[in-house]
Design goal:
By secondary structure, this protein is mainly alpha-helical. Helices cover about 65% and strands about 0% of the residues. It has six helices and no strands. The radius of gyration is 23 Å and the shape is elongated.
Length: about 140
């Protein structure tokens, strides 16, 4: 939270100057402040595919890492681990790597490994099935 403290913030408060945070979505910043003041997450809306909740959790993970709010970082990591799928695994893996979230990395790698194994089995099935090698000898 060092970015929110120091002489410059005290000067801004004394002069009534607004502090701008341009690189964070307003909803994410509101959720961060809510967590800092209440130690709880606000209710995160979840769309049909969980997209809203996931988007806010991704933003909050970055904010929590940036401002050193470790408990919030762990909570966001838990939320994201539940929502990893084949569409989100690569993006979330990059996010996990950037912010040092080892459990999220493991969840993403598991999804990717499962996806690759399934594709590999499908490929083997096409090759083997096409040649008839698994059917065994035919009796004439």
């Amino acid at each position: 939270m060092a970015e929110l403290f120091g002489p410059w913030i005290e000067n801004a408060a004394a002069t009534g100057t607004c502090v701008r945070i341009d690189d964070m979505e307003p909803m994410v910043f509101r959720s961060l402040l809510h967590f800092i003041y209440t130690d709880t997450l606000p209710e995160l809306k979840e769309g049909d595919d969980g997209g809203d909740k996931v988007a806010v959790a991704q933003g909050l993970l970055g904010a929590a890492d940036r401002y050193g709010v470790e408990r919030l970082k762990l909570i966001c990591e838990d939320i994201l681990c539940v929502h990893v799928d084949t569409r989100t695994a690569v993006t979330m893996l990059e996010l996990a790597d950037k912010h040092g979230c080892h459990r999220l990395m493991e969840a993403c790698i598991k999804v990717l490994n499962d996806m690759l194994a399934k594709r590999q089995l499908q490929r083997v099935g096409r090759v083997v099935g096409g040649g008839g090698w698994l059917r065994g000898p035919t009796s004439n």
